[in-house]
Write a structure and sequence with these properties.
alpha+beta, Aminopeptidase, Alpha-Beta Plaits, 2 domains, five-stranded antiparallel β-sheet, 13 helices, 22% strand, binds glyoxylic acid, binds manganese (II) ion, zinc, Peptidase_M20, EC 3.5.-.-, metal ion binding, metal-binding
């Protein structure tokens, strides 16, 4: 115990170094006016990956790329075996910020750098994982790389997924040179810890520095296509319309009302909506929209799905339109290992940081890793609860505090070995 504490004190984060890496990665795919766009498996994602892989090699990590493009950087321990892994993602939504995903990866690298600086070896190996296509904004489902890693989706199925631009995951992965030779799912992981921004308002509103994440809410993603008849906007009487655009926009209202009626944790979003032909004087003959439903309670999420789907069918039938639904992602709520939640809480307290237990509203690679090993998540506050938005922001003091908790947790789990005396 004394030994561990002494070793811990010697391992120190270099905050300016972590800040510099966050900023450098934030310049890859930077958007005019702020924020970043590094949709999964685009040239921008490749450039971000190349930067991170370069940093991993500079830190002496042994880097492997697997067949779904996950990047694992391994720092050997005194003993072989399953590493303690920190990880997250560096792909972003089209309007991403500097921290969603990137923080967990780069803070993991900073822990490695801090161990290197202090000359500390750990008994278990330590790894930093960068998982492919966490966002799911280009290719569904989200958390794809980590899902394949834990055996939740066959590799061939993932590679065959078509993105919003018609390109498959397999093609895009090969095009950026990240279809690697390593078998997916290796190495097996001893424990996984993901540091992430909260992406919601709770920590900031309550003035709390650290969230000890207890689990992730269930996610239901559906692609809906409505077919009607395109016709002249001026001449087609209302009684003769088969307006796919009306059905889609009415559906958005219906699911919004449904979430309000259900209350609690239920949320509902129509995030993508395309009308065809999308012209001012043409009744839309076709509409495509996405439905994102989430709840911390599986039974309530199922109830929301049933009502939403029935209402959409009813709206379409009344308008003489047809509906085709396709599930893009469906994940039940996940509960993290209680001992890991306790560890996050204790590590925050030991640093004198305020902490509360909370669920995650967003999806994370950690929810997939939880299927195969004890997994924990550390949240830090998001200014104004804003995320998936170029103005996403977290104060430096909060970022540094979160990284410190990650450091303490990883070092504890990996078990530092005191340097031999003399
Ligand atoms: C993924 O980041 C999601 O929660 O949508
Ligand atoms: Mn994320
Ligand atoms: Mn995200």
């Amino acid at each position: 115990m004394t030994t561990t504490r002494r070793t811990h004190q010697a391992v120190r984060l270099d905050w300016p170094r972590l800040r510099a890496r966050l900023d450098a990665l934030g310049r890859v795919g930077a958007l005019d006016g702020g924020g970043v766009c590094r949709l999964a498996l685009t040239p921008e994602d490749k450039a971000g990956r190349d930067l991170v892989v370069g940093w991993m090699r500079d830190l002496g990590l042994h880097v492997t790329i697997d067949a779904i493009g996950n990047i694992i950087g391994l720092r050997p321990g005194l003993e072989d075996g399953a590493p303690v892994m920190a990880g997250s993602h560096i792909d972003t939504v089209r309007t991403g910020g500097l921290y969603d995903g990137n923080l967990g990866v780069l803070a993991g690298l900073e822990v490695v750098a801090a161990l290197n600086d202090a000359g500390v070896t750990t008994r278990r190996p330590l790894a930093v994982g960068v998982f492919t296509n966490e966002e799911g904004a280009r290719f569904a489902p989200d958390m794809m790389g980590s899902l394949v890693y834990v055996g939740g989706l066959p590799l061939a199925e993932a590679l065959a997924v078509e993105g919003i631009d018609g390109r498959t995951v397999g093609d895009a992965l090969s095009a950026i040179g990240y279809a690697g030779p390593a078998p997916v799912g290796t190495p097996a992981v001893h424990a996984f810890v993901e540091l992430h921004i909260e992406q919601g308002p709770v920590l900031e509103e309550q003035g709390i520095a650290i969230g000890a994440v207890e689990g992730v809410q269930g996610i239901s993603w559906t692609d809906v296509i409505v077919e009607g008849t395109s016709n002249h906007a001026g001449t087609t009487p209302m009684r003769l319309r088969r307006d796919a655009g009306y059905v889609a926009t009415a559906a958005a209202v219906v699911v919004r009302d449904l979430a309000a009626r259900m209350g609690g944790d239920q949320v509902a979003t129509v995030g993508a909506l395309e009308l065809t032909p999308n012209l001012i004087n043409v009744v839309p003959g076709r509409a495509r929209f996405t439905l994102d439903l989430r709840n911390t309670d599986e039974a309530r999420l199922q109830a929301a799905e049933q009502v939403a789907f029935a209402e959409i069918d009813r709206l379409a039938a009344a308008e003489g339109c047809t509906v085709t639904r396709r599930t893009l992602a469906r994940f039940e709520p996940v509960t993290f290992d209680l001992a890991m939640v306790d560890r996050v809480e204790a590590a925050a307290r030991a640093r004198g940081l305020s902490v509360r237990r909370m669920p995650s509203g967003a999806g994370h690679d950690a929810q997939m890793m939880a299927r195969v090993c004890p997994t924990g998540m550390i949240f830090v506050p998001s200014a104004g609860g804003i995320s998936h938005n170029v103005t996403e922001h977290t104060d430096d003091a909060h970022l540094e505090a979160g990284a410190s908790v990650l450091l303490d947790l990883l070092v504890d789990l990996a078990e530092p070995v005191d340097p031999a005396p003399g």
